[in-house]
Amino acid sequence: MARQGMHFQASLLLAVVTLLFGSGSAQTGDARLSRFPVSVHDIVAALPGDVDHMDVARASRIWRKGVIRTYIAGNTPPTPEVVAEGLLHNETWAYYPDDKPRRSMYAGDTRAGLVPFLAHAHFGDTYSWLLYMDDDTVFFPPALLHLLRDFDPAIPYFITDHLWYANGTGPATHPHPQAPRCLPCHFDEAPYARRRRSFPAPRGCPCTPQLLCAAAPRVFNAHCDIPRHPANTFSMHGGAGAVLSAGLLRAVGLDFMEACSLSLQSTGGDAFISICLWQAGYFVTDPGLSVFMEGVHAFDPGPEDRLGAMRLLAAYIDGHREGADRHWVTTCDEACERQLGAMVSLHIRSRSFAALDDAASFIKAITTLYEVYQELLHHKEERERPAAEAAAAAEAAARVAAAAAAVAAQKLPDVGTAAAAANGTGTGAAGGGSESAESLEDQAHRLAMDKTKAGAQAAVAAGAMAETEAETEALAAAAAKETVAGTAAGLAAAAQEEIVVSETGHDAAAGDGVVAAAGEREQTEPSKPGEAGQASAEGQEAGMVLEATAAGQEASGTAAAAGQEASTTVAASQESSDAAAAGQIAAADQGVSAAVR
May I ask which residue range the UniProt record assigns to the signal sequence (predicted)? Predict the structure, then answer.
């Protein structure tokens, strides 16, 4: 019965690991916590339009590519021709009148502040994220999707790291590091040595005025009103843009925002939306990098340095090929690559061009440069992928091995103590010895179950720690599966070995006790038929168990070596990964069978 129990424990361990990792990346992907899958189909855009800026608004089609649904609110009713043309590009053209009289710098500022809420009334609950921008703002979808993957769109979020602010009597500047904002709850500060000299941003999901006022009470008055040093200079920057969650637009209605905006006199549409969202109970969440890294911003890093962004892209593109594989060597340094990787938006500032046609042409040019940069970056990542996956697999194997060592360190029945106890009670009744052996078997069974659970949890944790992009998940999962399958074989053999060693100690101790008792009886009374033979048989059984232990150890070493070899190999395909995993399971099962025999 004991041997059947041991075989069952090892088989159960293999079954659990196979169940968790044998079906590809589904479990591994699901285990990546704090992730909210997002694609361009989950995103809509909203921008204010002007009859004189229609060509600038149309130029953004080059990066929207007809996929991102877009709502454009102009200052004149759109003609049927404009509506029909817009439908070809997934655009909805609408009308919202200019302000008369003006209550800010431009007549279209109320429209600019309300356009996200007008767009939400149009799209309803058909999206997750809304891009809020001027008509001359460019968004870069790859960086945008990377940023949004850790944000829950159901939470009211107003995301940007580019704010107007003045922390004294001087003029407001942007982006201002002292402007109050929150950090997202999921942001990991561990990789960064310290914060910049910036606002002590609290974590907020969502960000609220109450959180900000508590974090910096000297900045705000007793009523926690929006700070004004001087008046009306604390707001997001409209040209840099922002990302609003569907949760925010469901929480704050168009009627509230319109009534609030029409009651204000301020600097612009970006001030209107900022002040009114504050009054509604929400404010800006910074993605995080700008709080810790000098010169790194996700939203319009310049500020408004379109030529600076172009130079960064040119530095990456202006390189050369070298090596046998003719790989691309860029002239973009580490700081350049860091900023390009973080850049979500860019403000072109069309008013700085001699003609709006030139601004439209620049939007197309900078988007094309960014696409070339993305292509080169993709080739670089593909070239470096095998080494990165091998390193990730080795790291995962090391983590699983550490978990296995921790499991092995758990307390097992002390063999020496058990032997002494067996020697002391060897002359006891046969019924008592049977009860003791049964108790040990139950204890070994329970410990083996604990090992099974811990090993499976360690394997799941190792798979969950792999941080890869969505497009690399399948390959990474295959590598992880092969690694875990190899390690599982080692775990199974190790668990088998420990259980056999434990039982061997008890069997050997019991054998010693029986032999000693038999010797004593021989000296004090005549031997009864069969007793000496029984003692001899029990001693032989103990010896056989010791031999089985040695066989199990040898099989365990073979399985562990096979698992170690598998951990350094990157899976070429799902089929080869499955075959490797099956081989490791078979090796482990052979080790278990050898130990049982």
Answer: 1-26
